[in-house]
Amino acid sequence: MSALHRRSFLKAVGILGTSISVAGCSEIGSTESSESLPAGSLKFHNRDSVPHEISVEVLNVGTRRGERVDGHDTVTGTPDVAVFQRNLTTTVIVEPGEKRTYESVFKSEVWYDIRFTLDDKYPGEDSARTLFKPVRPSAETPDRILTGRVWDGGEFSWSIGPDNS
Question: Mean pLDDT across the stretch 116-138?
Answer without folding.
Answer: 84
